[in-house]
Amino acid sequence: ARESMLLELLQRLADGTLDPTVHLELLTVAQTVQSSNIATSLASVAPADAEPLQAAQPALYGGDIGNGRKIFFDKTETQCLRCHSLDGKGGSQVGPELTGLGSRVDRKHILEAIVKPNAAIAEGFENVSITLDTGEFYTGRLMEESESTLTLEVQQEADPFAEEIPHSDVDTVAESAAHGDGAFAAPNLVRMTVDK
């Protein structure tokens, strides 16, 4: 009975007739069932080799803003507040303030920013990597550039600090990724943060 119910729901998912707010739960439960029929049906709606953004689509709907806030502030594995702030609380100026983000962009934009955080960096928050003549290396947000110096906001542990670097000491400057790709792996964490 359980298998036939799951197969029916997976078919509705494939047909586009299933409420999107339950997609993630259905896929999560179906992945725990040992059945070749379920595995075949799952492979058609959620291929194992799907590109990360495509695989995260079930996280677009549902979720809970309260749980999303807890993840933002409390989950050490996500480290959102290390660079971002929300309601004026949290991180530094390394990343943009996220208060009201859901009213400025759509869910798909938020999902992409979480799953593929380097795909589009907000203007003014691009990171650079600087190698000095000595081989010393800095990565951070370029805060200011004068004729004689570059000032980077560098993140160390939880505390950001400004590092002023004389142009005369710089060997190379290159754009740098702000995040590792796939900041979140768990779809349920992604979903909670996507909720407006």
Helix/strand order = HHHHHEEHHEEEEEH
Given as residue ranges, the uncertain stretches (5+ residues, pLDDT < 50) are none
The average pLDDT value, as a whole number, equals 83
Structural class: alpha+beta
- Spatial strand order of the main sheet: 6-5-4-3-7
Count of strand segments:
7
The first-to-last residue Cα distance is 36 Å
Number of helices, where a helix is a run of at least 4 consecutive DSSP H or I residues: 8
Q: Characterize the largest beta sheet: strand count, sense, and whether it forms a barrel.
A: 5 strands, antiparallel
- The shape, in one word, is elongated
Measured by DSSP, the beta-strand proportion falls in 15-25%
Helix content: 25-40%
Radius of gyration over C-alpha positions, nearest whole angstrom:
21 Å
Give the tags:
single chain; 34% helix; 196 residues; alpha+beta; 5-stranded antiparallel beta sheet
Q: Would you kindly provide a written description of the structure presented here, covering whatever features stand out?
A:
The protein is α+β, with helices and mostly antiparallel strands and 196 residues long. It has eight helices and seven strands; from the N terminus they run αααααββααβββββα. It has a five-stranded antiparallel sheet, with no helix packed on it. A two-stranded antiparallel sheet has the order 1-2.
What layout of secondary structure does this protein have?
Layout: H1 2-15, H2 23-30, H3 36-45, H4 52-55, H5 65-74, E1 85-86, E2 89-90, H6 101-104, H7 107-115, E3 127-132, E4 137-145, E5 149-156, E6 159-166, E7 170-176, H8 187-194
Antiparallel strand pairs: 1-2, 3-4, 3-7, 4-5, 5-6
